[in-house]
Design brief:
heterohexamer, A: 275 residues, alpha+beta, Ribosomal Protein S5, domain 2, six-stranded mixed beta sheet, four-stranded antiparallel beta sheet, 27% helix, elongated, D: 256 residues, five-stranded mixed beta sheet, 31% helix
Amino acid sequence: MMDVKRVISTIERKYIKNNLKKEERFDGRGLWDYREFKITPNFVASAEGSADVSLGETRIITGLKYDIGTPFPDLPDEGVCTIMAELIPLASPLFERGPPDEQSIELARVVDRGIRHADCVQTKKLCIEAEKAVYILFVDMYVINYEGNLIDCGGVSALTTLISAQLPEGKWNGEDVEWTGGYFTGKDIVNELPLVITYGKIDDIIFLDPDLPEELVCDGRISISSTEEKITSIQKSGIATFSFDEIKMLCNKSLEIGKKLRKDLNLWQYKANNE
Amino acid sequence: MMDVKRVISTIERKYIKNNLKKEERFDGRGLWDYREFKITPNFVASAEGSADVSLGETRIITGLKYDIGTPFPDLPDEGVCTIMAELIPLASPLFERGPPDEQSIELARVVDRGIRHADCVQTKKLCIEAEKAVYILFVDMYVINYEGNLIDCGGVSALTTLISAQLPEGKWNGEDVEWTGGYFTGKDIVNELPLVITYGKIDDIIFLDPDLPEELVCDGRISISSTEEKITSIQKSGIATFSFDEIKMLCNKSLEIGKKLRKDLNLWQYKANNE
Amino acid sequence: MMDVKRVISTIERKYIKNNLKKEERFDGRGLWDYREFKITPNFVASAEGSADVSLGETRIITGLKYDIGTPFPDLPDEGVCTIMAELIPLASPLFERGPPDEQSIELARVVDRGIRHADCVQTKKLCIEAEKAVYILFVDMYVINYEGNLIDCGGVSALTTLISAQLPEGKWNGEDVEWTGGYFTGKDIVNELPLVITYGKIDDIIFLDPDLPEELVCDGRISISSTEEKITSIQKSGIATFSFDEIKMLCNKSLEIGKKLRKDLNLWQYKANNE
Amino acid sequence: MVLLIKDEYPEKLFQENGKRLDGRDKKELRPIKMEVDILKNADGSAYIEWGNNKIFAAVFGPREVHPHHLSKPDRGVLRVFYRMATYSVFDRKRPAPGRREKEISMIIADCLEPVLFLELYPGTAFEIFIEVIDADGGTRCASTTVASLALADAGIPMKSLVTALAVGKIDGELVVDLSGIEDKAGEADLPIAITWFNDEISLLQFDGDMDLAELDTVLKDAKEAAEKIYEIQVNTLKDKYISIQKNIENEKGGED
Amino acid sequence: MVLLIKDEYPEKLFQENGKRLDGRDKKELRPIKMEVDILKNADGSAYIEWGNNKIFAAVFGPREVHPHHLSKPDRGVLRVFYRMATYSVFDRKRPAPGRREKEISMIIADCLEPVLFLELYPGTAFEIFIEVIDADGGTRCASTTVASLALADAGIPMKSLVTALAVGKIDGELVVDLSGIEDKAGEADLPIAITWFNDEISLLQFDGDMDLAELDTVLKDAKEAAEKIYEIQVNTLKDKYISIQKNIENEKGGED
Amino acid sequence: MVLLIKDEYPEKLFQENGKRLDGRDKKELRPIKMEVDILKNADGSAYIEWGNNKIFAAVFGPREVHPHHLSKPDRGVLRVFYRMATYSVFDRKRPAPGRREKEISMIIADCLEPVLFLELYPGTAFEIFIEVIDADGGTRCASTTVASLALADAGIPMKSLVTALAVGKIDGELVVDLSGIEDKAGEADLPIAITWFNDEISLLQFDGDMDLAELDTVLKDAKEAAEKIYEIQVNTLKDKYISIQKNIENEKGGED
C-alpha cells in the first residue's frame, strides 16, 4: 500500500495545522462542525435493508442480509448482528485489494461496538425459538468514496440500514422455521440510536469530523459513541495522547453534539412502512 | 509466472502467421484438422472412473470420485457433478505452483459448461432419496503435459471419465444410505455426448485445435460445445474480436466437426461393463 | 527467513566439528550427555493439562484443550489426540511469522508419531459412547526459547502435559453428553511413556542432544522413540546419510538412554491428584 | 438451516398478454441510467442503473504495476477487478472474491482491451475496479458497459466505446436483455459485447440450447438492442462535456 | 457438540461481605509479578504474571524491515504482534491469528509509539512479539505493560515507561483491574494506558454504559492504580541493574 | 454423510497358504515398471508403476530461484514438490496441498540431496515436481525412486542413483514392499532409501513396534530388495541410451 502519511507533504501538514490553530479549516468549517450528511435509505433492492450515506464526499453504502441459525449455547434466546466493512480500491488509491486490512477491521469494530453496547439492536427480538432458531443479521458496509472520517459515516449508514430493515417473520413449527407471511421491521429491532462521533488531534488542537487531509496529517483520533445520556463506547487510535481533562471535555461535547445530530438526521423517518 | 506471450519471439509469430495465411501449419495439418486423440480409460485404480487422454502431445489424466451429500434445497432430487482442473507445474514451465490460476479456472469452467448445458449428466439419476441423499461427483482433471488446446482434450477426458464410471449403488433405508451391492455405471448417468471444439484466431485467420506455439501467438480463441443438432455453449477468450459472420460460420462448422469426431472417437466403447 | 545455515560462519563450523572429534562440546558435555531437563507441570490455569519444560535453554510450554466430537466411522470407539507445534518468533530471530513452516510441522509430527505408535494415549478410554461421542484432545506446543533440539524437549513437554491432564468426565444420556461431576486424569489416559531421543551427525561424528550451534552446523539428525523394550518410531532429517551399523548402534543406545531418562525424570510424579 | 423464503422461480416467464413478467416486450430493454465522473478519487468513473442492477466503475491509470512482475516492458496491462457486494444478491455472498468474480474480471478485461492502445503505455497498468452494489441479471454486461464509460471519463484514448448486453431464450422465445429471473429460469443466456470501431464481437458466452437459426436471430436482435444502449452511453458523455463547457463559459462570463 | 462444561458466569460479582469474587476490594489490584531479560534470543524481553494472566514479550530491533516496502525512509517503524496460545482461554482458540489479535496488536503499537524516538531510526523496525500463554482478563493491558518493560530491557531510548490496566463497572459498582469473569459478566470495561512522560492517555477504549460522573471517577481510580503498577515496573528494572551491578562487582572482586 | 462403502481392512494379511493377500512371498516385490523422458516440457522426467502406484516426476533446472530470497549464494538448492491427485486415494483428497504432502516433499529433498553436487550451481535451483496419480502404499519411496531417475534423465551429475522402498511388519511377520492395505493394517512401516555411492541410508522413517533383532533383520531385507529395484532403474536408463544410440546410428546410416 502507499504510505498514507507521505501523501501529504510537510508543507501541507504545516499549513493545515496552522489553519486549525486559527480555528480555520480548508472547507470553511469551524472546529466543531460536521460536514453535511446525505442519506438515501433502501438503496439496494436485493438487501433486506440498506442505506447510501454521504458525509461530505465520504460515501458508504451499507446493506443488510440475514440468515437463520442456531443460537450460541450461552445466549439461547438471542439473535446475532454482525458488522463488516470493506474499503474497496474503487474508493481511493490509498486502499489496496486483498483481505481486510487494519483500517477496515477498525471501521467495522468501532461501528459494531457503538451499536452493541448501547442496546441498539434488541437481540432478544431476533429469537424465533429459544435454543433452536434465531436471526443472524449481516450489516455490511462498502466504502464507495473515501474523504476522511469513515467511522461517523459508517455509524449513520449502519444505523439507517437497521432502521430501514424489513425481514420475513419466521415462526417455529416444532421442527423447522416457516414464514408467517408477515414482516419484521427496523422499528421492531432497533431500540436506542447511538451515534459515534470522531475527533482528530494535531499537536494540542482537537477538532470534529476530520476530512481526508486532516486525517492524514493528524496524530490520532478518538471516536466516542453515545446515546441521549450515556457514553457507550470510546476508541482512541493513532499515536496522539490525550490528557485526562481533554477526555472529559470530549465526552461532554459528544453528548451535546450527539443530541443535536440525532434531532437533525431524524433517522426514524427511514423506517420501513409495509406491515 | 513467465510472461507467456514472450516465450515466442516476434519472428516466430510472423512465421506462424504467414504459414497460417498459406493454410500451412508446422505439423502439416490443414486449418480445420485436429491432432490425434489417444484415449486410455480406467487408468486410475483408486478412482471410480478415469481416463488418460492425449490430443497430440497435450495430455490430461482425469479421475472421478464421489461422495454422498444432502441435495440443494431448490433441487431436492438432483445430484451434483463438479469439474475441477489443475495445471500442475510438471506439465509445463509456464505453469506455476499455487492456487488455481485463471487458466485452470477457465479450463474447468468451459468443460463444465459444455457438459452441464447439454444435459450430458442426468443429475436426477444421481438422486438416492429426494431431499435426503444424492451423489456428488468430483471430476478432477490433471494436466500432465501442455502443448496447447487443453479445453478440447479436457472435454474428451471428462466425458470418457464419466462414461467409464462405476459407482456403488446406494439405497435409502429410511435413515441412512446403504449399499445395494450393485453398481451404477456411466451408461446410467450420461445422456448426451457434447463435444467442445476450440478455434484460434490470428489477425483474420481462424483455425481448429491450436497447438502450443499457435496458442501463444494467437489473439484469441473461441470454444463451441455442441450435441448432434444444437449449440450448447460458447466461450470466447483473449482479445481477438469476431465478426457476426465468423461466429455463424464457426457454429456451423462445430456441428459438422463434432458429428465426425463423435463417430471417430466412439466414446461409448469405454463404458464400464460389470453389472 | 534468515538462511539458518549462514548464521554460523565457516570458522565456527570447523571449530565445533574439531571439538566434537575430540569428544569435547562447548558446554562441557560428553558426546552422549543430555543438557538438564526442568519441568513445571500445570503451568497454565486455562488448560486442562500443561507443562513448561526446558532442555538447557530450549523451552516449550505445552497445553491441552479438549472438545467432544463424533468418532471417525472406522474407529467408532476411539477418541483422538492431535499434536500441534508453533515456533513463534519470540523464541528466536530464526523463526518467522506466518503459517506453520516445515520445522514446526516436523516437530509436531515426530512428537506425535513417538506417542501414537507406542500406545501411549489409550484412545479407547477417550470414548464416551461408541459411534456417538469421544474426546478430542489438542496438545499444542509453543516454543518459547529455541536453543536446539526442540524434538526431545517437545516430547517430554507433550508427555508431561498428558500426564498432568484432568478432564471433566462425560457420560452419554442417550441424546447428549453430560458431566458426571467427576474427572478423568492423565493416569487414566496414558499407558506407555515413550521418549524421543535425538542425535546429530557432522561428517562421521554422532552425538546426543544437539544444542543450537551444533544443530545449525550438523549435516543431519535422527530421532528415535522408544518404550522400555521396543523402538516405536524413527525419523531421519537433513542430508546426512547413516550406515546400517550406525543405525543399529543408535537404536541400541536409545533404549539404554531412554531407560535412564525415564527413571531420572520420573514423569508420573506430575499426575493430577484430585479425583 | 433453510432460509425462511426460498429464491423460487415462476413456472412461466410470460404473462397472458404476451408481455414478459416485468411488462416488457421481447425486444425491449429495461430502463437504463448512466452517470460519469461520480467518484472523486478515481482518474475516471461511471455509474449505471440497469433494471435493478446498480454498478460503480472506477479507473486508475496509467500507473505503476503492483506487483511489479506483472508489468510488461513493451506495453501497458489492463487489469479488471469485478466484485459483488455481499448484499447485492438473494443469498448473502461471502465477502472474499470467488472464482466466478475472478473469471468475470478476466472476461471483461479481454473484452475491453481491443479498444485500448496499450502499446502506447509500456510498463504501466490501467486498473478498473467494478463494484456491483445491487444485482439483477446481466451484471457482467452492465459492468462492461459502465467500465467502458469510466475509461472514456478518464480521458484514455479509445478506438470506440464497448457495449454489452445479454440476450437469450425464455419459455422457448428469443428475448433481449434478460432480467435476473429470466437469466435463472430461462433456457439460454448469451452475453455479448460489441466493439463499435469494427462492429465486431469482443465478448461472447453462451449457455443453453439453440439451433443455428435461433442463434442467427438472437445475434441480430442483440446488435439492434446494443445500438440503443450505445446511444445512452454517448449521450451520457456528451452531457458531461456540455456541463464542463457550460462551467467554462460561466467562468469566462464571470471574468468579464 | 456442546462442551461438557459451559463457560458460565455467576449472577453476582460481589460477595455478601462486599468483596469481589476473588476477595479483592473495589480498588485493589490482582497480584502482579514481573521479570525482565527472560528470553535469551531476544534483544529485550519481559514476563508478567498478573492474576492468572501469563504473558511473554520479546523485542527485536532496530533491524531490517521485512517486507521491505513497510519501511519508512524518515523514521523507524514499530510493529507489534500480539498472539494468544490456543490453550490460554476457556474454548480452544484457533491457531491462526484472528482479527481480534490483529486489532489488539495495532492498538498496543499506537499506545507504545509515543514514548519512542522512532525518528532516530530511519528505515528500520522494532518488532515486539507478545505471547499470551494464559489469559484471565485484561490481556491487552498486561501486554502493553510487559511490552514496555521489554523495550526498556532492550536498552531502547524511551521517554518513559507505559502502564496499562482495565477499569470498569460490575454490578453497578466502579472497580479497578477487571478479572476475566468481571470483564465478561460486568457492565463496562475501560482499558487505559498512561505515558508517564506527559501523564497522558495513549490507549483508551471503552465499552459499556456510563454517565459523565462515573467516567470521571473511574478515570481517577485508573490513574491511582496505574501508579502502583508503575512502581512494580520500575522496581523490576532496578532489580535487574542491581543484579548486573553485583555481577560486575563480583567479577571485579574475582579479579583482585 | 458416510460413504456407501467404507475403506475397511481385512483381519488377516496372510492367506492360508502363507502368501500375502496379493499372492506375494514375504520378500517379494510388487511388479515395477519404469520409463524415462516421458514429459516433453521438463528437463528430465520419469514415470513409475509400482503395484497400483502410478507416479510422474519432472525435473527443471538448474534455473532461477523463485522467490529469489530462497536462493543461496554459495550453492544450488533442491526443491521437491510432492503432490497427490485428488482421485489417487480412497477418499477424495482436498485439492490444496496438505501438511503431509509438504512434509514428504521435504523428506524426499533431504534424501536426494546427498547424491547431487549442489555446490557447483550457486544461486540456482533444481525443482522436482512429483505427481501421484494413483496411490497404493509406499508412495514416498516410489516417488524418491522415480525422482532419482528423472534427475538422471535430465543429465544432472549425480554420485549415484537413490532407491527407496518400505519394509515392515504385518501380522507379526517381517515383509518387504508393503502394499497399501499392508501399510494401513500392518503393525510397522519402515520407509528407507539407499544412496548407492556410499551404501548408506538417506531416508529412514519408522512407525510401529520392533525390538532390536527385528529391526536388524528388516534392514537387511530392505537392502536386498533395494538392489533388485536398483537394477530396474539402471536398465531403464540403459534402454534410453540404447534407443538414443540407435537413433543416432540410424541417422548416420541415413546419411550414408
